[in-house]
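FORM 12-B: Structure-to-Sequence Request
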């Protein structure tokens, strides 16, 4: 609880106690007025000051003006003998109680988000004269070496030059599974070093690092308002002056009509009704709870590793009916791996052994994947006369024997008769053949592996109400078809250039069947991300392009987070609609009762403060997204 909140709570308690005490004192007349003015001014002086400033600035129509006008009017009525001072003090007291609850709820939401996003480093360690010195992260230059000890945050993006450890990425991704790092690995700011000491060569300045970009994104998320928020703002600007003039009409017109008809004017009764009408009409519940709902929704999403750039995108995400995926790096890992080994004249180990040695010096992704599949590649075998055959593969002399590793064209060049791959694996990958001289040894299938959570992600989207799932890829038809079939996607398009992807997306947008979201890796898909109704960057941990181009950023590599993001947005929008209908509904009923003289100040207090407190507490529920 902040100092301001504590101060306001003390004011409320003092005013409440004084009001209760003065109720027991049998005083009347001016003494009773003087007594009740004490708690009234203690609890309401700031409201009166704000109302006076609003009138002075020619912008009087806000809740402070309504409260001040209504309560002063109630005091005037009490002075004339037609009411009691307790009502005026109670209205101001309960209004401040409502404001305190609202302030506490907003503060709690901000603290939750601040605790979650507590990734801003306070310092960076650098070595000076053999000792560690703490400096401001802004002072560290690119290429400088920093030291991160166990339990400390990584302050700046860089590459590990010395040490091994595991990193806690929970504040960025919402996941608790640690990530192992060693020398040569890239690391990003905001992660916590769990164990050991890491030396890191920085690759960016602090202002351009991942932690700075994420914090900037979260801090600016509330600046882009949704249609619901804009509606409430416009509504309040029209509604507030309308009810003020409505209250004036209620106070003046009925008494004048009664006078013209020869009846008693009953000015006190109609003025009382008008003041009750004013209190009921205060739009606090709407004006406060709707932005708070979106703020809490964005905060709840951030806690799960989903960064939403503004409440407008949160609202669009809730209306998503078509999800379009990029393939590589989104539904698949984007890293080639050996998925099948089919030996012919030798065993699997020997086939991998020879292929890995031939590819010993290769920088091609296929060569790298072959070496990774055979962990004993550095076993001292003699590798000579390595020759790359353009468009065909690689040949080398391994322990005195010529080995060929490549496609069918290379096998034909070597004079080896191949055995075609008839297994289902080859549909999703590249088949690499191997031969010793003209003797065929077998083949290896290398594929871009589907992420473990991709199939579940598509199923979860269907359960969440997404009508169509589509994949766009530049891969060959057979590879795309295999992935689409395994993941049970509704449609897929293959052999697409970046411009072709935009054209296909345009066709989907033209169907006008709800919001179309595009999900990509945020690096090569910027044009499509920008063109979609809502662009979502998948697996964007540390990607500048993703944070810049996308409207929503999923901070880890798990596609299942997409369905979670949609569920969070829909819960938030459900809460927004609940608050709108509840607030307007209760007020309309109470306004009618007030105009008819059935409602009194106590019902007005509930219609204003009670509804506001209920709406605010309901809005805070948008933070609770863990079990969605």
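FORM 12-B RESPONSE
SEQUENCE OUT:
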């Amino acid at each position: 609880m902040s100092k301001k909140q504590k101060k306001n709570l003390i004011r409320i308690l003092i005013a409440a106690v004084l009001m209760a005490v003065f109720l027991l004192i049998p005083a009347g007349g001016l003494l009773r007025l003087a007594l009740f003015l004490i708690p009234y001014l203690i609890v309401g002086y700031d409201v009166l000051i704000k109302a006076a400033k609003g009138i002075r600035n020619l912008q009087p129509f806000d809740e402070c003006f309504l409260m001040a006008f209504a309560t002063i009017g109630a005091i005037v009525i009490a002075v004339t003998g037609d009411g009691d001072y307790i009502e005026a003090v109670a209205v101001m007291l309960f209004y401040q109680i409502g404001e305190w609850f609202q302030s506490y709820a907003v503060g709690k939401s901000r603290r939750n988000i601040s605790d979650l996003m507590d990734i801003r480093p306070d310092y960076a360690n650098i070595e000076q004269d053999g000792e560690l010195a703490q400096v401001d992260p802004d002072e560290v230059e690119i290429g400088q070496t920093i030291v991160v000890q166990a339990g400390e945050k990584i302050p700046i993006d860089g590459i590990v030059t010395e040490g091994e450890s595991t990193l806690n990425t929970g504040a960025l991704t919402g996941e608790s599974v640690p990530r192992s790092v060693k020398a040569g690995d890239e690391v990003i700011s905001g992660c916590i070093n769990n164990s050991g000491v890491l030396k890191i060569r920085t690759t960016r300045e602090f202002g351009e690092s991942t932690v700075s970009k994420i914090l900037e994104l979260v801090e600016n998320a509330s600046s882009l308002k949704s249609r619901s928020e804009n509606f409430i703002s416009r509504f309040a600007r029209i509604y507030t002056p309308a009810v003020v003039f409505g209250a004036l009409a209620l106070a003046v017109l009925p008494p004048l009509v009664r006078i013209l008809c020869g009846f008693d004017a009953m000015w006190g009764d109609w003025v009382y009704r008008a003041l009750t009408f004013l209190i009921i009409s205060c739009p606090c519940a709407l004006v406060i709870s709707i932005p708070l709902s979106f703020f809490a929704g964005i905060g709840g999403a951030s806690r799960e590793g989903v960064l939403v750039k503004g409440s407008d995108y949160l609202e669009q995400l809730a209306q998503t009916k078509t999800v379009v995926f990029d393939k590589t790096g989104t539904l698949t890992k984007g890293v080639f791996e050996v998925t099948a080994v089919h030996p012919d004249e030798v065993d699997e180990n020997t086939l991998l052994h020879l292929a890995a040695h031939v590819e010993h010096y290769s920088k091609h992704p296929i060569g790298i994947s072959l070496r990774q599949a055979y962990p004993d590649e550095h076993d001292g075998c003699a590798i000579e006369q390595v020759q790359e055959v353009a468009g065909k593969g690689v040949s080398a002399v391994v322990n005195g024997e010529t080995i060929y590793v490549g496609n069918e064209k290379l096998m034909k060049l070597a004079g080896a008769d191949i055995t075609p791959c008839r297994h289902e694996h080859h549909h999703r990958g590249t088949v690499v053949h191997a031969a010793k001289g003209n003797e065929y040894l077998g083949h290896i299938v290398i594929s871009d592996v589907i992420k473990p959570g991709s199939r579940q992600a598509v199923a979860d989207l269907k359960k969440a109400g997404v009508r169509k799932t589509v994949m766009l890829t530049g891969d060959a038809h057979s590879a795309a078809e295999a992935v689409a079939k395994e993941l049970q996607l509704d449609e897929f398009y293959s052999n697409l250039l970046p411009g072709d992807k935009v054209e296909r997306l345009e066709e989907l947008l033209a169907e006008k069947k709800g919001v179309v979201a595009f999900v990509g890796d945020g690096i090569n898909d910027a044009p499509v991300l920008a063109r979609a109704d809502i662009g979502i960057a998948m697996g964007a941990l540390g990607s500048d392009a993703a944070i810049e181009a996308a409207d929503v950023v999923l901070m880890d590599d798990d596609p299942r987070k997409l369905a979670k993001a949609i569920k969070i947005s829909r819960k938030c929008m459900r809460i927004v609609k609940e608050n709108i209908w509840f607030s307007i509904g209760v007020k309309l009923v109470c306004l009618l009762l007030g105009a008819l003289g059935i409602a009194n100040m106590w019902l007005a207090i509930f219609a204003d403060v009670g509804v506001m407190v209920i709406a605010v507490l309901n809005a805070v529920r948008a933070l609770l997204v863990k079990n969605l």
